[in-house]
């Protein structure tokens, strides 16, 4: 039975992804920093494997992955690096602790997870590392500058590991949603008001499922990114072809 380990899996996109894969018969591991949220998940889904995970701690990653794979015979088909936080506001007004927390969780946490999962993914044929990126990495977003920057990091990490881990038969991809109907969309960011919240956690979960079942074209083109929703697709494709000054103007109108 294939297996998926999901960080930040007790709510929002992570939980929707857990339900999507469980419905397909996968062994699902839901890991989160919130014990209360995990208890609620375990009560509703006793078939899920759950555990407390602070993604900032490499030792916790090692311990939880070892625990999870003890239920799967060492198999790990997918690590879904989903955990993340967002704090909106002008950079000059955000505390250093908040800045550090976003970088530690949204960038370092993803990296620690990838590193800890590598031996299990390598031991599982045709495995996947899935990193949750964001449309905020298409162009740097004022008002959520630190979060946006961490998602550029996630995009770069994904591309680097796609090359680095290809000889290990590990496919590395990133998922690019715009604002989804989750707690992150409660942020006071101008782009939410401009663009609205038009995608659901279930749509993102469907895209995660699609990404780990690549078509022949996906493999032939070494596809590494999957946009979620029409807005993200249009913005992402436009950014590849329009002049930077126009790209800047579009994003200024969206975010300010």
UniProtKB/TrEMBL annotation:
Gene3D superfamilies: NAD(P)-binding Rossmann-like Domain (3.40.50.720). Keywords: Oxidoreductase. The keyword Oxidoreductase applies. The keyword Oxidoreductase applies. It holds the Pfam family adh_short. Belongs to the short-chain dehydrogenases/reductases (SDR) family. This is SDR family oxidoreductase. It comes from Gordonia hydrophobica.
């Amino acid at each position: 039975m294939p297996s998926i380990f999901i960080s930040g899996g007790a709510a929002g996109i992570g939980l929707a992804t857990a339900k999507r894969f469980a419905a397909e018969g996968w062994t699902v591991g839901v890991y989160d920093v919130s014990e209360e949220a995990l208890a609620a998940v375990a009560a509703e889904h006793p078939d899920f494997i759950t555990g407390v995970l602070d993604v900032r701690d490499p030792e916790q990653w090692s311990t939880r992955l070892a625990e999870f794979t003890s239920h799967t015979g060492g198999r790990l088909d997918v690590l879904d690096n989903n955990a993340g936080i967002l704090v909106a506001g002008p950079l000059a007004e955000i505390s250093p602790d908040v800045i550090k927390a976003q970088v530690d969780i949204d960038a370092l946490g993803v990296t620690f997870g990838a590193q800890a999962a590598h031996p299990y993914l390598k031991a599982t044929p045709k495995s996947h590392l899935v990193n949750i990126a964001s449309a905020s990495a298409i162009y740097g977003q004022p008002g959520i500058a630190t979060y946006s920057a961490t998602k550029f990091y996630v995009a770069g990490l994904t591309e680097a590991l796609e090359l680095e881990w290809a000889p290990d038969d590990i496919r590395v991809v990133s998922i690019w949603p715009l604002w989804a109907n989750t707690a992150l969309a409660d942020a006071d960011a101008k782009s939410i008001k401009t663009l609205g919240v038009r995608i659901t956690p279930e749509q993102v979960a469907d895209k995660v499922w699609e990404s780990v079942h690549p078509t022949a074209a996906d493999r032939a083109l070494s596809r590494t990114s999957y946009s979620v929703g029409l807005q993200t697709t249009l913005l992402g494709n436009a950014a590849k072809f329009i002049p930077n000054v126009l790209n800047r103007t579009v994003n200024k109108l969206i975010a300010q």
